[in-house]
Amino acid sequence: MMKKYLAALVLFLASNSVFSQDLMDKNYTPPIGIPMVLAANFGELRPNHFHMGVDFKTNGRIGYNLYSIADGYVSRIKVSPYGYGKVIYIDHPNGKTSVYAHCSEFKGAIDSIVRISQYADENYEVEIFPKPHEISVKKGDIIALSGNTGSSTAPHLHFEIRETLSEDALNPLVYGFDLDDHQKPDIRNMKIVAISKDGYQIPGKSIVVPVYGSNGKYTIRNNTIDIPADFCSPTGGIGLAFDIIDKLDGAPNQCGLYGTDLIVDGDTIFGQQTDRISFEHTRYVNSHRDMNSPGKYHKSYRTLHNPLAIYKRDGLGVIALKPGETKSIALNVYDPKGNESQLNFAINVQQGSLNADFAPSPSNYLYPQDSLQKKYDNWSIQAEAFSIYEPVKQSHSSTAHFCDASIDLQKPVVIRMKLENPTLPVKNYYIAVFDGRKYRALTTVYEDGWLCAESKYAGTYSTKTDVQAPSVRGVSYNSSYIVTGNTIKLTIKEDETSLADYDLFIDGKWHLMEYESKGDFLIYERPEGLMGEHAIKIIASDVCGNEVIYERTLNFK
Ligand SMILES: [Zn+2]
Q1: Which of 264, 357, 388, 396 is the most buried (most CB within 10 A)?
Q2: Ligand 1 centroid distance, CA of 116 (Å)
Q3: Separation of 44 CA from ligand 1 center, angstroms?
Q4: Are strands 54-57 and 340-349 parallel, antiparallel or unpaired?
Q5: pTM score, two decimals?
Q6: What is the CA(101)–ligand 1 centre distance, in A?
Q7: Separation of CA 443 and ligand 1 centre (Å)
Q8: What is the per-residue pLDDT across 42-82, written as a single tens digit (0 to 9) for each?
Q9: Within a 10 A sphere around the Cβ of 524, how many other Cβ atoms?
């Protein structure tokens, strides 16, 4: 095992010489002052992205000190109610950037610069790029407190190491963080999928095969599976996908897969090693995972145009089969500490004739490399090349739609819908996409009689209106409007579209108010020394320009 791992490492170094000098930086200090226990690791399969860092557990609480892992300077700070929430980026002399996300508050010079910027812009949401060395930090400096801001669903530290130049996310467990791990990866299930020579799935052709075993040794029932000859195509073959999880010491959390090698009749034909992922490619998780299963199936094959850098070989991993043939298959799975598991079995193809090729006609199928432009009287669509991952059958109709709602998109498509005889101001109209379960409002602009929006969702598009302003309700004071605490909390609801702006004025002066999107909360701190009666005014608007003005006189005690 060690030899193979080294070989992979040497290959990796040779192909990435720019940053090879400090592949393993052992000099980092932990970003958190409690034992480093992972809730999630690098490369886990998430909706529309890979997990680009590691999640450190914080005992279900917020407020732990966060430390800069090395000397450097703050290169970026962002505050947002979505995504990473309050996040700090620090550039280090070794060409890496460390990222600390979902913070509850910033410390020191970082906190000051953010506040100055928020008051200057009169906006809670800011993004700042301090000049090199404007905010220098030393290894171990306290930069923030851990939190749960942005899209985080429980308190934790989302931590990343990026290559500064490319901004690619690197696996922290490979690039400097050596966490205890004595547990072997767990191979739970397998899927056999009929695929074309280009790695495209032949619709409706897949078999789920339960995997048995533990502690590094796995197989399937009778060690063999028989598949009918007509299951696969003569020019393509089959691909295998595996549901694999890995655990580390100290927590029961199911983390993701690091490395695999797929060996067919003694030849290694495919493998992945999750060392780096670019943000440009992270959405290709939709192509890497088995698209027809909600579980954590990693394909051990890929499509022709999948550009992810996690694959160790050029081949697509297509296993060609002949009737009556038996193939012996081994899958090796390993984690960054070298804990290894192996699945062994045989595939036996029954006698008969192989099924027809999967070669959908370009006249009625859209291929991933194709762009698309269609114009109808009442709507139009524009899709760039590589907007989809698999060939998709096209249907033509006067109903605005693109593919089936279950199809994932790599790039947004541009949808235009004619707005005929509007009875409301045009700003009240927007395009919505029905994703099979609910309508999602798209950010829409109006141009010469047409509504125009970009959609990251396939499905059916329609024109809707929003005339309802957001609603605001105070929760930290009673009906006599007496405030005793230091933090004032309100709820804000926007049902139809989304919140565009929110501002708080105390006695006519703008005051910082935070917005927590996941709980629909507005929160602000009582200005120091504020006592007695004061006029509170909140103005909030949605993306269709519907505005609410909430005014109260509060009695601060
Ligand atoms: Zn995370």
Answers
A1: 388
A2: 28
A3: 9
A4: unpaired
A5: 0.91
A6: 8
A7: 27
A8: 999 999 999 999 999 999 999 999 999 999 999 999 999 99
A9: 19
